[in-house]
Each structure stands twice: as structure tokens, then as C-alpha cells.
Amino acid sequence: MQQRTTHRRGSTDPESAAFGDLLTRLRTATVVTVERERPSNTRSGRAMWTMQTTLSQNELARRAGLTPGVISKLEAGTYGMPRRWTVENLAGALELDAVTSCLFLIAAGYWPWHDLDDDTARLVAQTALAVIAGDYRRLEDVASGPT
Description:
Blueprint (H helix, E strand, L loop, with lengths): L13 H16 L1 E8 L8 E8 L2 H8 L3 H9 L7 H10 L4 H10 L10 H16 L2 H9 L3
Antiparallel strand pairs: 1-2
Helix pairs in contact: 1-3, 2-3, 2-4, 4-5, 6-7
């Protein structure tokens, strides 16, 4: 069951905003190591320094094969929902584990599991979206089932 909601580019909708917030949190939680050459006053050679920093939009775009503008619009929630290919490339660029990649796909409106029946997939997706949003009341509603 592959469903996704499409919206005009440039408009902000709740799903795009939620996906953008998640992308921003994952990007800024990713730590990368940067090595740079430091000018040296000696003739003996180059001195290097290493720094750890969060992943920039430019670096994420480069790793995912996208433009920095697309990353910016996705994070702002004004791009609309991305295609599955884009989400999978972003997950790879962010080096997400399997569980987080599944949650990331769900947040973008895709089913990561092709062999689940619709009811089970819907329950798993509702649970995952409640966890992503930190909406514990909604999580309790999903756990208690239909009333």
C-alpha cells in the first residue's frame, strides 16, 4: 500500500512541516568530522586541525545528490512531500539505522514494509508517527485500539 499526499510546491501543510522538522532534527544531530589545513609558520610542512560539527544543509545536499535549496525548502515545509527516492537518499546521507529509516519513510508518507497487510501497516504507521511527534496521548489512543 503506497500512499502519499501531494501538495503544490511552495505551500505549507502540516505533513510537510512535520517532515521538515524531523529532517532538521536528524541533520543537526548528525556529527561530522572536518579536517582542515592550518597555515604553518615553519618550513617543515603542513599542520592539520580536526573539528567536529553538525551536518550542514550544503553537505547533506551534496551527500544526497540534491541541491541546498531543496534541503532548505524541505526543512521549512514549503517543498511539499518528497518522492520516495529523495527520502531514501536523505536517509542514506544521514546514515540512519534501519529503524530510523523506516520512521523517516513513514513521516514522508511511505510504507517501508511491502509484505504487511493494510491494517497492520496502518497500526505500525500510526504508532511511529505518534512517537515521531512525541504525542503520547495519540500513542495511548493507538495502543488502546478503536473505540
